[in-house]
Design a protein that fits this description.
InterPro entries: Di-copper_centre_dom_sf, Tyrosinase/Hemocyanin, Tyrosinase_Cu-bd. About 35% of the residues lie in helices and about 5% in strands. By secondary structure, the protein is mainly alpha-helical. It has a single domain, classed as Di-copper center containing domain from catechol oxidase (di-copper center containing domain from catechol oxidase). The longest helix is centred in the C-terminal third of the chain and has 20 residues. The chain starts with a helix and ends with a strand. The chain has ten helices and ten strands. Bound molecules: 2-acetamido-2-deoxy-beta-D-glucopyranose (NAG) (6 copies) and copper (II) ion. The site of one 2-acetamido-2-deoxy-beta-D-glucopyranose (NAG) has 4 residues, from helix 7.
Length: about 375
């Protein structure tokens, strides 16, 4: 009797603890690392100059933004999609909007900015340009929000306010289409492995929330045919830069993040991968790839992934993980580079250097060095 009451009480305590989101040891460790990174980042900011401790911008998780900021962000993304393209039709014939410019630059440079020494730096700079465009061209008053993969890995999909389908979300999953097969993306260069993605829990067009009428213009580049799936019209050009208006498909698959981007995996990257050679490629093909394929393996390829506004949340988190990793030991990690000029070093090429230029097509080239620190030169931000 005594014993069983004790068990019932213990069980109830356990349930309450779980329900209140008690912090797991892995999450506690992550919180500690984030605190250490922030302290390191702030303590070295100068007292004078353009970027100081009293004006450094803080990029936050979507779940920690107010509804007011979320609505302002959603409005600004739609605004970017309503402004005319600047990239020039000789570079991207199918680009119609300022939003398309970012995707076009990504499509054009895909083989040289993935699995190369430019990966982290190029994506940091284009995310900065995107944040700047939202603020300066569309009046957004906040900063780039990110998606903390692990924070939402173990809760039901529809509890993440980023894609719960409500008016304050980035719209939800695609409509579920059963009995499809998966997709196979050939590698972007000869000799690179192809990538299989199993069908997820959507597969059709998104159908709720503010982006239901979001129109894609470019791509696909990789044209997967999916048995019984939503047909996707091929792009009129083989480079995917022709005009191909269509609606947006999502195919969420929570297992990918649950298996590939948990706090346990991420803290291991931050603490145990102490050189950029240990960190870069496993991170690229691990947590980074998992987040992309979570969104969709279908009509969302290596080239065209920025067409879905969720891309910027995912790459915000990629940049955040790199920033935290750098911030845990600036002396050895801040300017560390790994990788050559060619995808997976195919064909073999030389190592990328800090002086190599990166191209953005609609915005001036910048050297890699320029994108290594988030608080120097034009940048002035840290991550919450
Ligand atoms: C934010 O908006 C969502 C619907 O989009 C609503 O469910 C939620 O209650 C709102 N939160 C606050 C704090 O008002
Ligand atoms: C999700 O991804 C996993 C791992 O690739 C795969 O086994 C599974 O079939 C996919 N789909 C669903 C609905 O879980
Ligand atoms: C999407 O477009 C349809 C048809 O024009 C319209 O009725 C609907 O209100 C639009 N939805 C949103 C969220 O803009
Ligand atoms: C999926 O379906 C397409 C079209 O029928 C086919 O070409 C492809 O081989 C199938 N893939 C798998 C893995 O079954
Ligand atoms: C680091 O690696 C060691 C040895 O493999 C492992 O025991 C430890 O859990 C790892 N640390 C983290 C934070 O994952
Ligand atoms: C290129 O970088 C790799 C590690 O990232 C290093 O092992 C190699 O020595 C470098 N090659 C040259 C020529 O510097
Ligand atoms: Cu990319």
């Amino acid at each position: 009797m005594h014993n069983s009451i004790f068990h019932i009480v213990a069980f109830a305590v356990l349930l309450v603890t779980l329900a209140s989101g008690a912090t797991s040891p892995d999450k506690q460790l992550m919180n500690k690392l984030v605190d250490r990174y922030q302290a390191n980042a702030r303590s070295r900011l100068p007292k004078t100059g353009p970027c100081r401790a009293d004006n450094v911008k803080v990029r936050k998780e979507w779940g920690d933004l107010s509804n007011k900021t979320r609505l302002d962000y959603i409005r600004a993304v739609k605004c970017l999609a309503s402004l005319p393209s600047k990239i020039g039709s000789y570079k991207a014939l199918g680009a119609r909007s300022r939003y398309d410019d970012f995707e076009a630059a990504h499509i054009i440079h895909t083989p040289t900015i993935h699995a190369t020494g430019l990966f982290f730096a190029w994506h940091r700079h284009i995310a900065y340009l995107y944040e700047k465009a939202l603020r300066e061209e569309c009046g957004y008053s906040g900063y780039l929000p990110y998606w903390d993969w692990a924070r939402w890995a173990d809760v039901p999909l529809n509890t993440n306010p980023l894609w719960d389908g409500s008016a304050t979300s980035m719209s939800g999953n695609g409509k579920y289409i059963p009995n499809r097969n998966g997709t196979v993306q050939p590698g972007p260069v000869s000799g690179a492995p192809s990538l299989y993605t199993a069908p997820g829990t959507g597969g059709g067009y998104i159908y709720e929330g503010p982006f239901v009428n979001w129109t894609l213009h470019l791509g696909p580049v990789v044209n997967s045919v999916v048995q019984n799936g939503q047909p996707v019209t091929p792009n009129p050009r083989s480079d995917g830069l022709g005009y191909n208006p269509r609606r947006m498909i999502r195919d969420f698959n929570a297992s990918l993040v649950k298996e590939g981007a948990t706090y346990s995996i991420l803290t291991d990257f931050l603490l145990n991968k102490t050189t950029i050679q240990d960190f870069h490629m496993p991170f690229f093909s691990g947590p980074h790839l998992a987040g992309h394929l979570f969104i969709s393996g279908y009509d969302n390829d290596l080239y065209t992934s920025p067409q879905d506004p969720l891309f910027w949340f995912h790459h915000g988190q990629v940049d955040r993980m790199w920033s935290i990793w750098q911030g845990l030991d600036y002396a050895t990690r801040e300017y560390a580079l790994d990788g050559t000029l060619t995808f997976g070093n195919l064909p073999p090429s030389r190592n990328v250097t800090l002086d190599d230029p990166m191209s953005f097509e609609f915005s001036p080239d910048v050297p890699v060095r320029r994108a290594m620190s988030t608080t120097k030169e034009d940048y002035c931000y840290i991550y919450a």
